[in-house]
Each structure stands twice: as C-alpha cells, then as structure tokens.
Amino acid sequence: MSFRAHVRVMPRGSLLDPQGQAVEHALAALGFAEAAGVRVGRAIELEVAAASRAEAEARVRQMCDKLLANPVTEDYLVEVKEA
Amino acid sequence: MPKVAVVRFPGSNCDFDTLRAAERAGTNAFFVWHHDTSLQDADIVLLPGGFSYGDYLRSGAIARFSPIMQAVQRHAAEGGPVLGICNGFQILCEAHLLPGALMRNAGLTFVSKPVDVVVERSDTVFTSAYAPGTRLRLPVAHGDGRFVAAEDTLRMLEAEGRVVLRYVPASEASPLQPNPNGSANHIAGICNAAGTVVGIMPHPERIADALLGAPDGLGFFASLAAWRPRAPTLNLPSR
Please, what are the domains in chain B? Predict the structure, then answer.
C-alpha cells in the first residue's frame, strides 16, 4: 500500500528561534501586531510504501530520528494518510 | 611526517587552504573524496569548511552519511585524530562524534570577520603548539555557528574541560565584538572526551601564513605536524 506522510520539524521550544523572532517583527511592522509566539520550522512530504498505516508511520519516525530532524535541537510531528 | 587526509565534499570550499596549510607545516597531506571508502592510511583527518551538499536540510546533515564518513567514524573510534573546521565542525556534531549542534546565528546574518578567541585546551593533537590561555585572532565565516547543547551536556563539557576555543567574553577588553553567533557559554570549539576529535568554528587555515600578517592559525597545523602516533604495543606471546 502507498501512504502519504507529512512531517513537521520544529525548533525545540526551549531554544532561541531567531527566524521566528524576525518573522514576528516583520509581521508587527506590517500591522499584524496581534501575532505572537512565531516559530519557523520545516515541512517535509513523502510517499511511503508499507503494509499498513502503522508500519508506514513507524518507518517515517525512524527517518526522522536518523535524518529528517536533529534530536538535539528539534521536535517532529508525523501524520500518515492513505495515498 | 604524519599523513593527513583532507576530505572533500561537494560544496567544500576551504579544502585547498586547509591542504596547503597542512603541507606547509610539514605533513604529507592529500585529498580524499566523499565517495571514497578509504582514508588511505591517514594518521590525521581534516574536515574543511564550506557548504557540503548545499547545507540542505541542516548544515552537515547529508555529509554525515557519505561513504567516506564511515571510514572517518572508524578512524575516530580507534583514537585517530580528527579536526573539523566550520562546516567540518557541523558535520562532526551531526555524526555524533561531538555533542551538541550548530544552529542559525542569533543575529540571523552570515558573519565573516576576525574574532578574538582563547585557547583553553592546549593538550589536544591540534592545539599543542599553543600555551594554555593564548589569545588568537582568527577569521570566522558562517551562518550556522551558534553552538547549542542540552544543559547537562554543557555542564559536562565545562566540568571535563572540553571547551577548546572560547570567544573572548564581552566583559573583557577586545576591539572586536565578542561571540559572533550567540553560542552557549561563548563556545567556539570543543573536543571529545579523549581530546582526539576537535571541532572549531573559526578558520585557522585562512591565517596560517606570514604573508597574511600575524599567522595566529599556524599553531593548529604546527601542532598536528608535530603529532606522532603512539608506537603499536607488541603482543608478545606470554610464557
């Protein structure tokens, strides 16, 4: 079966996110003063062939641990849907 | 003279400077390519600066999985010396040969300028030519140089004296702005527990020639050129 995975990689909450801060300042300058707590991460989409949804998700989590996210600085969220 | 392998990745751009500095210090230095699987019996491995694999995903994240890095992992595991400069430092962290990670500079801009650092460890393969506490003025050129690590990792690095280079703190007189990237504890370079694997953000290879003025970076190459592997222990049959 084929699955479509969405991976969201975000800088860990406890770490300084200068990109998020810069975007927040830019939003304020554009008149969006209500925007707060902006953080910038990365989205990755991929197709995975697997026997089940659970297997696909387990494999994508391994990909995150090995390459897609840095365990020292980032957290990730995995969402898997049938393609 | 020691045999020194300078690893070239697609996107390395300090490879020639690094090779030349190692050669001029009196080593037999040569390039190895990222697709190679052998370090050609090198005694010492240098990972030069640049933008390996275009810094895709994260700086050093892809380079870590190149074939030559399996050989570098084995070399390091056997106690072989490895120095990572700038992108090389990022690769060593991604490869878990050094703890922590190098994140986007706190100021978000690419920083290219000389900075003042203190040599805090002078008993590594790469810093033995310096007296402890020596101040150096070395160029930095990076966008991802902010060293971060978990609190307990930072405490361990400090307790074990594994900070090799530190940016001169703002409180001390220095004509140059301190800490160019917001790194934790003003860390500019660290080593592994054995002191054999060293990663630094500044570029000593860019200031290792008298033609360029005070050759503050020369000591790194003089240090590694003076290094001799320990003689192998003889395994005599016991009687």
Answer: 3-226 (3.40.50.880)
Q: What is the mean pLDDT of chain B?
A: 93
Domains in chain A: boundaries = 2-82
Cα B236 from Cα B239, distance rounded (Å): 9
pLDDT of residue B233: 61
Percent helix, strand and coil across chain A, each to the nearest 5: 35, 35, 35
What's the gap in Å between the CA of A19 and the closest CA on chain B? 7
Tell me how close the Cα of A21 comes to any Cα of chain B, in angstroms: 10
A residues 8-67 near B, CB within 8 Å?
11, 15-16, 18-19, 22, 67
What pLDDT score was predicted for residue B27? 97
Instruction: Give the residue numbers of B marked as catalytic.
Output: 86, 203, 205
Per-run averaged pLDDT (10 residues), chain B, 239 residues: 96 96 97 97 97 92 94 97 98 97 93 95 96 95 96 97 90 68 96 97 95 91 91 61
Read off the pLDDT of residues B60-92 as tens digits, 9 standing for 90 and up.
Answer: 999 999 999 999 999 999 999 999 999 999 999
Fold annotation for A2-82? Mth169; Chain: A , (3.30.1280)
Helix locations, chain B, DSSP H: 15-24, 67-77, 87-94, 151-159, 218-226
